[in-house]
């Protein structure tokens, strides 16, 4: 396998290095807040929403509906991606980051004050779904802007490293969400958690919105976008151009994310939390212990995500993915075997082993996606590929996993499902050329437009 040799390092000035670090901090802070909000809902769906908003449907259907509400938001991610991609390629990356942050935070705070089914009847789940849809639109537009700000500011030889910073927002967001819920299970144990304790982490999002807004407003616009703007080279209909010329690449890029996303949503989507704490299930662990274990695994996920970004600068994005897919597939069945022991420490070990593959199929993704698409349509390409991948992967993964266990009576069926998804993603990765280090500026649109899929010639 050939390792790309197109990386063009340059000597950055002290001022440029400070700007790059400032952007890295701003993107990780912003994405952490976004994913804290998003995962907070998913965790609450596995822990309390079935009881509070869907209970009249009966125990089994209620949990399916609760996890289904997690997945509904993914159906609206492409809308957020289309809107943010279109305006991000025309108006800039920075404005989209601020708008999506405010939308996500406001939706989360409103969920924290939303009455339950017992209080207002069927309007409760309807309003819950509407707020979750707004979260989905925000998440669809957030990621593309954050990763392009990080990657397009980064030195050529360190795109993987700096592109990993917004990726850290996922494990950090998971850590914050599960950590806050774990704290509240101690502060408000038992029925108190059901009555009001779960609401506190949602309401605290208003503080995070202010912090994220201030941080994101402080960074400079992407230098690539500024160059495109100054040269009046902005594409009027970037989404149309994207699908006319690069639809196959969008599909393959989406599939590479789908495998990791379906696996990641076993924890970020609340499935493991529900499976391990269900008193009628095979494990029956207490809520606080499981949340702490998931929080610990979020730390190891963070470490391997950052490591994957750094490694990808040395061996290439594609080679790093290959390592990740092998590690992820190898950990799937051991994860469920360890969870089923009912031992909290073995559950924690299984989750930590699982995060090796999760990190090594995620840390390099920002740089990998940014290097696939031409500068003039890059925001659209990155955002839409990510949104479609999230639908194919994580959207209904917790719901599918729950339905499989209910139908088969064993978690082995979930392992088979995740293995199939990871294998498809592995194959999609192998079909895409490694373009590590390719120039990202508008001067190199011809090189960026060259076929990125094996077996395709320029049309």
Automatic annotation (TrEMBL):
Q: Which cellular compartments is it found in?
A: Cell membrane
What are the record keywords, sorted? Cell membrane, Membrane, Transmembrane, Transmembrane helix, Transport
List the Gene3D superfamilies: MFS general substrate transporter like domains (1.20.1250.20)
Give the span(s) annotated as Disordered. 439-459
Report the GO molecular function annotations.
transmembrane transporter activity
> What Pfam families does the database record attribute to this sequence?
MFS_1, Sugar_tr
| Topological type in the membrane | Multi-pass membrane protein
Q: Name one GO cellular component term.
A: plasma membrane
Q: Which PROSITE patterns match?
A: MFS, SUGAR_TRANSPORT_1
Which InterPro entries does the annotation name? MFS, MFS_dom, MFS_sugar_transport-like, MFS_trans_sf, Sugar_transporter_CS
Q: Does the keyword Nucleus apply?
A: no
Entry's transmembrane regions: 23-41, 61-83, 95-117, 129-151, 172-190, 196-215, 249-272, 292-312, 319-338, 344-363, 384-405, 411-432
Q: Which residues form the Major facilitator superfamily (MFS) profile domain?
A: 23-437
Checking PANTHER family in the record gives:
SHIKIMATE TRANSPORTER
State the protein's name: Putative MFS family arabinose efflux permease
Source lineage: Bacteria, Bacillati, Actinomycetota, Actinomycetes, Micrococcales
């Amino acid at each position: 396998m050939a390792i790309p040799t197109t990386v063009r390092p340059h000597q950055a000035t002290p001022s440029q290095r400070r700007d790059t670090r400032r952007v890295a901090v701003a993107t990780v802070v912003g994405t952490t807040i976004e994913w804290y909000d998003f995962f907070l809902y998913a965790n609450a769906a596995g822990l309390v929403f079935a009881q509070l908003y869907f209970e009249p449907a009966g125990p089994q259907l209620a949990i399916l509906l609760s996890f289904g509400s997690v997945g509904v938001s993914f159906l609206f991610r492409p809308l957020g991606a289309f809107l943010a991609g279109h305006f991000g390629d025309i108006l800039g990356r920075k404005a989209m980051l601020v708008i999506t942050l405010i939308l996500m935070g406001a939706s989360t705070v409103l969920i924290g004050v939303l009455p339950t089914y017992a209080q207002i009847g069927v309007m409760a789940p309807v309003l819950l779904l509407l707020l979750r849809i707004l979260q989905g639109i925000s998440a669809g537009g957030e990621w593309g802007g954050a990763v392009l700000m990080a990657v397009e500011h980064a030195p050529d030889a360190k795109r993987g490293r700096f592109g990993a910073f917004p990726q850290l927002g996922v494990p950090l967001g998971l850590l914050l969400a599960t950590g806050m819920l774990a704290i509240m299970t101690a502060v408000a144990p038992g029925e108190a958690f059901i009555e009001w304790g779960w609401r506190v982490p949602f309401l605290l999002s208003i503080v995070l919105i202010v912090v994220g807004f201030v941080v994101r407003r402080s960074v400079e616009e992407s230098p690539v976008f500024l160059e495109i703007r100054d040269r009046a080279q902005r594409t009027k209909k970037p989404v149309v151009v994207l699908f006319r010329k690069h639809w196959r690449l969008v599909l393959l890029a989406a599939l590479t994310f789908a495998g990791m996303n379906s696996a990641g949503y076993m924890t970020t989507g609340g499935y493991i939390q529900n499976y391990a704490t269900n008193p009628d299930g095979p494990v029956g662990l207490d809520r606080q212990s499981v949340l702490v274990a998931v929080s610990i695994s979020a730390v190891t996920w963070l470490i391997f995500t950052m490591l994957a970004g750094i490694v990808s600068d040395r061996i290439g994005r594609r080679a790093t993915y290959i390592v990740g897919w092998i590690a992820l597939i190898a950990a799937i069945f051991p994860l469920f075997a360890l969870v089923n022991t009912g031992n909290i420490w073995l559950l924690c070990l299984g989750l930590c082993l699982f995060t090796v593959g999760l990190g090594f199929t995620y840390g390099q993704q920002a740089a990998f996606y940014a290097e696939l698409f031409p500068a003039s349509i890059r925001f659209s390409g990155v955002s839409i590929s990510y949104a479609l991948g999230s639908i194919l992967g994580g959207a209904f993964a917790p719901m599918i996993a729950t339905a499989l266990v209910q139908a088969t009576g064993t978690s082995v069926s979930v392992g088979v499902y995740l293995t199939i998804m990871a294998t498809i993603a592995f194959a999609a990765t192998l079909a895409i050329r490694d373009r590590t280090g390719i120039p990202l500026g508008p001067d190199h649109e011809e090189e960026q437009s060259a076929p990125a899929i094996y077996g395709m010639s320029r049309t």
